Amino acid sequence: MTLSFGRPYLAIPGPSVMPDRVLRAMHRPGPNIYEGELVEMMPDLIESLRTVARTRHNVAIYIANGHGAWEAALANVLSPGEKVLSLCTGRFGHGWTEMAEALGAQVQIEDFGLRAPVAPARVEAALLADPDHSIRAVLLTHVDTSTSIRNDVAAVRAALDAAGHPALLLVDCIASMGCDRFEMDAWGVDVAITASQKGLMVPPGVAFVFFSEKAAQARTKVTRVSRYWDWTDRANPKVFYQYFGGTAPTHHLYGLRESLDMIAEEGGMEAVWARHAQLARVVWAAFEAWASEGPLELNVADRTHRSCAVTSVRIGAPNGTALRRWTEEKAGITLGIGLGMNTDEDPDADGFFRLGHMGHLNASMVMGALSSIQSGLIALGIPHGPGALDAAALVISEA
């Protein structure tokens, strides 16, 4: 018997749950793309995006996913043969590295493994070992969606400053923006990237690149940027189509306007960050209780280094895959795969899963996910500690 009939719950770390308000805003006939409301709403839309990123600087919009944002950021600040320092704490840090290599950059990797955040002292040492300042950019993933590690962006900025190094700081905020606290200007970030499908609660297909004046100056020195990826006209359009390098992603824009309004109505970024932090503590309380007995273990031990948007879990092969399949087939909830967690002993990462808790999310949704996971643990006979749901409920009661 299955109890999965009803509305399915996509509890992966993006695409996140899309609010009905966003879906309704998108469910409309195609608009006039030459004049009228779509054209007129763009200045306020750009300002709302700046508010989310906590920046006064430039915004460029691309019809792309997060990988497109990676390429756009790199293409505008690097020429082939130039050097970057890539700080990796999971699959997505390495993915951005691979994108840089494909564009002809020389990449120096500092790999911090799959369970620990970037160590600022190592970053400073790597930059001090570059007295000629051949490193043009430092790549950092704020939250690596595969490992659920949250890196300290301000501390990495401090490492650049301590080394007296002029490299640009580029930060991947695809998993974190709109979920974990991110302060582009206050933290000294030169380029920040994100996409529509996670904290912004809109279907995949639109990516955003925020860049400082220092990054804009770097663009003027790049030998070649393709017409499509060039952020110059997108950030300073003279006509509407230049925002997008062509035809606008019309219905995504209506959905985005609605989601940004929802963020403002909640009380702005401080309120959104507080909700994500509290719901993350609900998730951690349950997982820590389950982890007291049996094979389950949170990938990130220290709470201060955990994302408030996604939790990566080790549970031993084949338990991860078995649990994901049980919850989807029996309870109607889809958990994330153990992306990038493959090992020689577990080549298909069957011993891992991830729970996304980002974007359009409330206490009942989190408790439903946790209850379904506990049901799966019981049904599959996976040992686990007691009191998880009580611990989660207590954290909710303290909100």
Question: Helical region count?
Answer: 14
Percent of sequence in beta strands = 15-25%
Helix content: 25-40%
| Strands in their spatial order, largest beta sheet | 2-10-9-8-5-3-4
Overall tally of structural domains:
2
DSSP summary, beta strand count: 14
- Radius of gyration equals 21 Å
Task: Output the helix-strand order.
Answer: EHHHEHEHEHEEEHEEEHHHHEEHEEHH
CATH class identity of the largest domain: Alpha Beta
Question: What distance separates the N and C termini?
Answer: 36 Å
Superfamily (CATH H level) name of the largest domain: Type I PLP-dependent aspartate aminotransferase-like (Major domain)
* Overall spatial form: globular
The low-confidence runs, each spanning 5 or more residues with pLDDT under 50, are: none
Main sheet?
Answer: 7 strands, mixed
